[in-house]
Amino acid sequence: MELYQYSWLILFAPLFSFAVIIFGTRVWDLLSRPRVAVQEQHEGDAHADAHTDVHTDVHTDVHTDAHAVEAQGAHGEDHEEHGPGEADDEDPKVPQLTMGAKASGYVAIAIMALACLYSWILLLSSAGVFGPSALPAGGIPLFHYDWLVQGAASYTISFHLDNLGIAMMVVVTTVSLLVQFYSQGYMENSAGYARFFSYLSLFAFSMLVIVFAENFLVMFVGWELVGLSSYLLIGFWINKRAKPAEDRLSPATAAIEAFIANRVGDVGFMIGIMILFVNTGTFQFSELATKVQSMDKGLLTLAMILVFCGAIGKSAQVPLHVWLPPAMEGPTPVSALIHAATMVAAGVYMVARTFPLFAAAGPAAFQVVAWVGGITAIFAALCALTQTDFKRVLAFSTISQLGYMFVGLGVAGSAYGPGPGMFHLFTHAFFKALLFLGAGSVLHALHHAMHREVQDMRLMGGLAKFMPITAGTWLIATLSISGFPFFAGFYSKDTIISLAFKNGYYGLWAITLLTAGLTAFYMLRAFILAFGGKGGDFGGLWGGPYRGTGEPHESPATITIPLILLAIASVIAGYWTGFFSYIQPGAPDLSIAEVITSPITWLGVVVALAGFAWAYTLYCRVGMERVHQVVESNAVLLFLYNLTLHKFYTDDLYDLLIRYVVFGISHVELAFDAYVVDGLVNGVARLVMTAGRDLRYVETGKVQSYMAAFFGGIAILIAVVFVLVSFVK
Amino acid sequence: MGLTLNHYLVLGAVLFSIGLYGALAKRNAVAVLMGIEIMLNAVNITLVAFSFYDQVSQYKTYLTGQIFAIFIITVAAAEAAVALAMIIAIYRKRSTVDVGEIDIMKW
């Protein structure tokens, strides 16, 4: 039990490294500040000092700021090999990292490695592989503090640990560790390296707050912290400009979009929590599970659908999916973290955590979850079909896979519990992190080859020849996400599809089956466009004509090691057959024999293979250029192509909606505020002022008139009293 | 028939009204002051009369009203001294004691 009692260390490890980096770099910054005026110094020295300032990004005074600006100017001159036109397009680059920056990276990685190790020990121990004992069914409390007690209602900060939390914790710490390790190579030339690692640590901490949360209040705090961290990290390259030609926003705009889209969902989340709190008087998940039984069913269903709105926002489900594709503007390791472990997984985890509440509500609650997931899955898969931006394909595939998870949560029923949805989250975390980190490796290589940022797959092709490790691991992830037999994604995705069939959701079954085929198509398409092409080996799958310029190289070991580790996990994660009963005791286990012999499984495999075959035929046999010619010349195909390329015009629809409806309402509200509210306030003030201005003439300054008024008043009073006394008896 | 309380009260009321008229209608500050003095003394008469014809008290030595009157006379003397000093000061400053013209404490 002691093993579990100290698991809060995992929660605070990233917070600790965040604090160490923030304060450490500040001290470093102060210590390395030049003792004499900058102008008198040797150019080289000024340069070195200025770098420290750029890294730590903590400018307190004008003096330091002037420093940073000078440093950036100097960099532009230093880096002629990066080509002209880049300086105004990208964030400042640094030729090499200072010791302080490197050290902050090492601190973050070392602490995260310990946390990751500990969480794996917890996982293996609680799953019964070794160690003292399994956790009790309800989990154990770790920390409890009454933050505010108001009569019967108490607002508590409490953390707990159970199997669901451990499974999620393993995902978070593992992916965070690998992403941080990877970032050493990926971010080596980026200014603000130390800041980047501090944000990554903060992100991991925020997610762990959600994982450990024992009530809605703490979960909401973590929920918002995740929103903040994602905002900071998506907008990390704050000076980068938008690229309208590629339909790409600037990172700053994308960060704001992500933040605001999440706020929309959070409104529902908050109202849902409030409804639950008002009716049951508690935020605690364990107490809610019993107390909601006596709640009105309809109201509870409404509350749970509102709570699910938060998950729609956080997990980028239709109709709040719009923030996730632009969020690709952040550094690629951040995308991996957001998509695999921290940000979007929070929504799925929240629904899994509140699964008993959804189960207590009417069936409509689960149906909403499942159908939103199903619609999102196929919608995003359709959008992903024609995207040309390498990372954007992955963004839509994440949205689609999250849809699968919600389908899994919605159709599972109480026999399976949240297991199937969480299982897909678990396997998806590994192969999606692998896909993103592999994509980052490609972008890194192309950046060095072409000296500019390239994400367009039409400028890739045949990269397998140049970077075999990235291509090989990417292929594994592609097969895994497409549900190719015996990879991790096969088991988790098939479980969801066959559960939809078994539990009678035939519409959702058809949707998820079709989506599996689409997934296979767009993933293999992306793979062929990037790594293969017509004329390569194995019929065009491996290598082929390279459409870009320069000579890409395989990425350094800091980048390829995480890829290899994740590739292994992407295969073996599916073989944890006891996952369902681990999450919910008593749930039936995953039976590989049953999966392999079930005809529904093989139907899914056939659909996926059809998707593969389609992609192979179009992009390996026919060739990308020819496909584009055919699409351009056919009006119907071109219409469909444009429809999916522009995401069914949802962005434009929202743009119109916000521009005319929301801004219109804003104008009405502005008018109401200006004329009614301000009018009322100003009117009262004007009345008082007018009255004062006019009534002051009563004050004549003549003492006799005051006296006359005084005695006149007394006379009237006496008269009144006299009348009252005489006549009113 | 002798003097009753009502005679004194009527006298006090008449004196008070005369004093009030003087205080309100006279333009000379000294006359206003004299009006105020008459009002004070009208009240004194009333107080002393009530004290003398006190029917409630069992003892003739119940002298509250008379002591009150002495206090008022004392305070009135002090007030007259201060008021006259002020009138002199105002006259030196503005060469007038017309209360209609002494009106600088207005809007």
Structure description:
The complex is a heterodimer of chains A (729) and B (107). Chain A is an all-alpha fold and 729 residues long. Chain A is built from 30 helices and 2 strands. Chain A has a two-stranded antiparallel ribbon. In chain A, strand 1 and strand 2 form a beta hairpin. Chain A is globular and about 120 Å long. Mean pLDDT of chain A is 86; it is low at 43-88. Chain B is mainly alpha-helical. Chain B has a single domain, classed as Helix Hairpins. In chain B, 71% of the residues lie in helices and 0% in strands. Classes of the chains: A mainly alpha (729), B mainly alpha (107). Chains A and B meet through helix 30 of A and helix 1 of B.
Structural descriptors:
heterodimer, A: 729 residues, mainly alpha, two-stranded antiparallel ribbon, B: 107 residues, Helix Hairpins, 71% helix
Query: For the largest beta sheet of chain A, what order do the strands appear in spatially?
Result: 1-2
CATH class of chain B: Mainly Alpha
Briefly note the structural class of the backbone of chain B. Answer: mainly alpha
- Ends apart, CA distance between termini of chain B: 57 Å
Assembly type: heterodimer
Return residue spans of chain A where pLDDT drops below 50 for at least 5 consecutive residues.
43-88
Strand content of chain A: under 5%
Count every helix of chain B, treating DSSP H or I runs of 4 or more residues as helices.
3
Largest sheet report of chain B: none
The CATH topology assignment of chain B is: Helix Hairpins
Shape of chain A: globular
- Helix/strand order of chain B, N-terminal first: HHH
Mean pLDDT of chain A: 86
The helix-and-strand class of chain A reads: mainly alpha
Greatest interface and its participating residue counts: A-B, 11 and 12 residues
Largest sheet entry of chain A: 2 strands, antiparallel
Report the helical percentage of chain A. Answer: over 70%
What's the helix and strand layout?
The complex is a heterodimer of chains A (729) and B (107).
Chain A: H1 2-5, H2 8-31, H3 43-56, H4 62-78, H5 99-126, E1 140-150, E2 153-161, H6 163-186, H7 193-212, H8 216-234, H9 251-280, H10 285-291, H11 297-314, H12 332-340, H13 343-353, H14 355-360, H15 363-384, H16 390-411, H17 413-416, H18 419-450, H19 463-466, H20 468-481, H21 488-502, H22 506-531, H23 557-572, H24 579-583, H25 592-597, H26 599-622, H27 624-633, H28 635-645, H29 650-695, H30 703-727
Antiparallel strand pairs in A: 1-2
Chain B: H1 5-25, H2 29-52, H3 64-94
Helix pairs in contact in B: 1-2, 2-3
